[in-house]
Amino acid sequence: MVIHKLLLKVVVLGALSGSYHNCITEAADSMTKPGCRGDCGTLSIPYPFGSRDSSSDCRIDHSSFTVDCDKSTDPPVAYLDNRRSNIKILDISVEDHEMRVNVSYGRACYSSYGRNQSSSIYSRLTQVDFPISSTKNKFITLGCDTWASLHRHDGNYSIVCASFCNTVSDVSNGSCSGFGCCETSIPRGSFGYKISIGSFYSHQYVLDFNPCSYAFVAEIGFYNFSVGDLKQLEFNQSTLVLDWAIGNRTCKDAKNHKSYMCTNNTICTDAENGSGYKCTCKEGYQGNPYLANGCEDIDECSDPEKNPCEGKCHNVDGSYKCSCPAGYHGDGKKGGRDGQGCTANPNPSRLMEILVGVAGAIIALLFSQQLNEQERTTKAVQSLALKS
Fold it and tell me: What is the pLDDT of residues 258-273, one digit of tens each?
């Protein structure tokens, strides 16, 4: 049975490898409209976003979907809307509807004379069309005599985080629970912010090891507290995640307008953070759901490493089917996917040998039983004869 399994895998993988290597040599489908710029340095720019120096048809007619590519640097740097926004775009995901950007931190430094205004930095995010992800970011305050507040741009609420310590021995690397470092969650619906930083005693009791207070919004996992950061923070910008969606209508309302953007083989979902709707490719498809015919069938059979079948794999539109080759039976799916796999059929000659053996055993048993019955009958007759 083991040999049959190994032979099956060799046959199937051999058949797949040729088609797979042909597939990987082909270029990936474009995520932009034909004739439109699709990158800025290392950043890929998928539609509905588009470069400022491209045609207006290459993007949604809205500043938040405009990428300004500064080619004066090497590599070029992408900014949201325009470079004056100072919001550097690191990544745009159509699949997750997220944008990663770099923003400056806030800093307030002190000397023995009090707050040093010349070395302080004021942080704010004025781009208000995409909400800050409430599940992917944290508001972080750093310092031993520090409080900081994050004010929403419309003034509806403020978030406050405070951190304390008397000596370096009070804090621990990796801990952000209020001793030297404080972090807190950000509510949904937070679009822009302004950070204010203050100190209770102007750092006069901790000045020798903590001259500055810091505060910033950052993606979860971006920052890991280090005791050395109390003396000087090693970065001046943090990475945060913005959630983006289309317009301010729900799917139900948007479908009734000509501007509705979900194309073939897509599904529409309402934005969980902020307003608007999102288009995604249906299961079994991949690509850009905002382009005409942008969601294309996934060929599950082309990659031998991810092939879901143990037997033969047959790609169909939006899905796949498995079957077993000649001489095997089962559903053809790998066992790790709740499949039965393929099992070799019994060898006909071996089956005949088994059947002959079983038949012979049955005949021998019947013959033995017949002999025993005859022997018992003979003994009975002899016994009766002796008695008479």
Answer: 999 999 999 999 999 9
